[in-house]
Design brief:
The chain is mainly beta and about 250 residues long. It has one domain. Helices cover about 5% and strands about 40% of the residues. The strands form four sheets. Strands 1, 5, 6, 9, 12, 13, 14, 15, 16, 17 and 18 form an eleven-stranded mixed β-sheet that branches. Strands 2-3-4 form a three-stranded antiparallel β-sheet. Strands 7-8 form a two-stranded antiparallel sheet. The protein is globular.
């Protein structure tokens, strides 16, 4: 009988995988890139009537505003690259030439649905989903973050339609950020130069929530791993690839 040693037993080299991810903890942030002063705004197109009379824009905040309305009954988000990162051309004799690139453009495909009527009364939180106060509407409305502060959410379908309908066309683009926890680390993927490729104007259904398929083209994406101090709950540092930044 052969002796099992690390050199002839392949199972010896296989690690035990312990990946843990809370699938319901993802946060998606949206920021339109039009900047006036020190603030970012999404202008309201002239063919949309959203908010009080005279309301012309939505404050998107520097880090982006939280958005909701993503279906969980199937895959709700996937980023597809525009082109392959490597091409191989076979040549006579059995070899080949490999061509590589670092092109980072692509398309975000999101399965969305309307989750609330937007707030059309408040100038401060126009288009925000509301569920409390005198102007009660259905929606998740105001929730609390981990520090007890109000956390406002916006309907992503509404924002996508407003960006796609910009007067004269969209010449600024947006930034979309996805954050989720994985193995005790916060993973942040940021998509830059986002423009709306397609968004359905309207969908209606009977006993179902209509799927608004939104396709977003992006020009670049970045990946960040953030370490969390177990005692303070704050970021120790942010890691972009192999480098550390002081975020």
């Amino acid at each position: 009988m052969a002796t099992v040693t690390p050199s002839n037993d392949i199972s010896y080299f296989q690690p035990i995988i312990r990946g843990i991810q809370n699938v319901g903890s993802a946060q998606i942030l949206y920021r339109y890139n039009y900047k006036s002063g020190d603030k970012y705004y999404l202008p309201i197109p002239s063919n949309f009537a959203v908010g009080p009379e005279g309301q012309t824009s939505i404050d998107c905040q520097e880090d982006g505003i939280p958005v909701a309305g993503f279906r969980l009954d199937s895959e709700f988000l996937r980023a597809n690259p525009q082109i392959a990162s490597a091409f191989t051309i076979p040549v006579l004799g059995g070899g080949g030439v490999s061509l590589t690139n670092n092109n980072r453009t692509g398309t975000l495909n999101l399965a969305c649905t309307r989750v609330a009527a937007p707030n059309i009364f408040s100038t401060e939180h126009v288009a925000e989903m509301v569920s409390e106060g005198s102007n009660n509407m259905s929606g998740i409305g105001v929730t609390k973050d981990k520090d007890g502060n109000d956390q406002h959410y916006w309907d992503f379908v509404t924002l996508a339609q407003l960006q796609q309908g910009q007067d004269g066309g969209d010449s600024y683009g947006a930034q979309i950020t996805i954050k989720f926890g994985f193995c005790g680390t916060t993973v942040t993927v940021t998509f830059e130069g986002c423009t709306i490729a397609t968004v359905d104007p309207l969908g209606m259904s009977g006993n179902d929530a209509v799927n608004y398929g939104v396709a977003v083209n992006y020009l670049n994406w970045k990946l960040q791993y953030s370490a969390i101090d177990s005692k303070t709950g704050k970021l120790e540092g942010a890691y972009w690839g192999g480098g550390k930044s002081n975020l």
